[in-house]
Design goal:
single chain; about 200 residues; mainly alpha; Endonuclease III, domain 1; 9 helices; 2 strands
């Protein structure tokens, strides 16, 4: 998609950057089309998230989302968590060929061999990181003042920070971590706050 690098599929159809919910709350335009989007927007998206395993889960889910609707991933997230040992890095790093076959047979998740292999590979890389994944990812958080977006046109798909993050992750051996995926991760985990002006979640 173009901008923003967040729950895709609606940017081209959105008449404005905001949408009024059934509870009369104003939200970012993408958050009103399904209950799962509303919950994710209100409770998670743009909220600071820390923890190596927690951030690894988000990194994996952003990679699985590539080419799909984010709503599909949200609805499958419980199944993903069950299939991938709660996204505990050290547990996934120990997955073997039997686990790969189990995952490829699991219709409750996205059965993409390249992405499944990437999750296991990335877990092995993350398990050996010094410092840990949390510290590494958050080191790319933008510093200094950042104006709140007021329109769809002001929401980027990539930034210099997400490009740098993707480059460093690839240098360390991670797969499926391009600049757009990196920026979606930054938005999702509160490294940047892209709730548009007028959204009830906007803090200023």
């Amino acid at each position: 998609m173009t901008a923003p690098a967040v729950p895709p599929g609606e940017a081209d159809e959105a008449p404005s950057a905001l949408r009024v919910g059934t509870d009369n709350r104003m939200r970012c335009w993408w958050a009103g089309s399904a209950p799962e989007y509303v919950e994710y927007h209100d409770l998670e998206w743009g909220t600071a998230l820390h923890g190596d395993d927690e951030l690894f889960e988000r990194l994996c889910l952003e990679a699985f989302q590539s080419g799909l609707s984010w709503l599909t991933i949200l609805r499958k997230r419980p199944a993903f968590r069950m299939a991938f040992a709660g996204f505990v890095i050290n547990a996934i790093a120990a997955f073997d060929d039997d686990d790969v076959q189990r995952l490829l047979s699991d219709s409750a998740i996205v059965r993409n061999r390249a992405k499944i292999d990437a999750v296991i590979h990335n877990a092995q890389v993350a398990a050996d990181l010094t410092p840990g994944l949390d510290e590494l990812l958050w080191s790319f958080r933008p510093t200094g003042p950042r104006p709140r977006p007021r329109s769809l046109a002001e929401l980027p798909a990539i930034t210099p920070e997400s490009t740098a993050m993707a480059k460093e992750l690839k240098r360390r051996g991670f797969k499926f971590v391009g600049p757009t995926t990196a920026y979606a991760l930054m938005q999702a985990t509160g490294m940047v706050d892209d709730h548009v002006a007028g959204c009830w979640r906007a803090s200023d």
